[in-house]
Design a protein that fits this description.
This protein has 183 residues and is mainly α. The chain is built from seven helices and three strands, in the order αααβααββαα.
């Protein structure tokens, strides 16, 4: 496999993460951080899919997941270099490359930016500022409305610029700003 073929492109990572079984497989391997047997992995994935404890799974449920992992999902992750798989022993070992998909997965520990709420809050603040400026001005006096309008425009411009930067520019965002990217 050449170096170019061995690179994890965005399209490859999205393809690998497109299957819920592969996502759970990756999650389980990352959580365990050790070599696991394919049978153990199949049991855990089946328990997750059937929302049942491992001991309550029937033979057919285990087999369905095992065959899928054996024929499709494990070989695909091994080919991408995220895991090492020994078909003779059934052992699956996570590689250092498994962490390469982290930037594509959500992190539940980080706060989520809800842009629609930020914009709604700005609208509310704008209405209040304009109401105060309008009600506080003497009849015929428009002096306060201009600076208040400029402050409102500035708030919207800064928020829109930050939003644009976060969504469009910052795929390689510095670590202390990555929380802004979570949706």
């Amino acid at each position: 496999m050449s170096q170019e073929e061995n690179q994890l492109t965005r399209d490859l990572v999205f393809d690998l993460l497109s299957s819920p079984r592969r996502r759970y497989l990756i999650y389980y391997l990352r959580t365990e951080g050790r070599t696991v047997k394919l049978t153990e992995l199949a049991d855990e994935v089946a328990a997750w899919e059937y929302e049942s404890p491992v001991e309550d799974l029937d033979k057919q449920q285990r087999k369905r997941v095992y065959v899928s992992l054996y024929q499709t999902h494990v070989p695909k992750l091994a080919e991408a270099g995220l895991i090492e798989y020994d078909p003779d022993t059934g052992e699956i070992t996570p590689t250092y490359r498994l962490r390469d998909v982290d930037s594509y997965l959500p992190n539940g520990d980080e706060p989520e930016v809800r842009w629609e709420l930020i914009y709604l809050l700005l609208v509310g603040v704008s209405v209040v500022l304009l109401a105060v400026a309008t009600l506080g001005a003497a009849p015929g006096e428009d002096v306060l409305i201009v600076p208040v309008g400029l402050v409102i425009l500035l708030l919207f411009a800064v928020t829109a610029a930050v939003h644009y930067y976060v969504v469009r520019v910052a795929n390689g965002v510095p670590e202390n700003f990555t929380w802004l990217l979570r949706r």
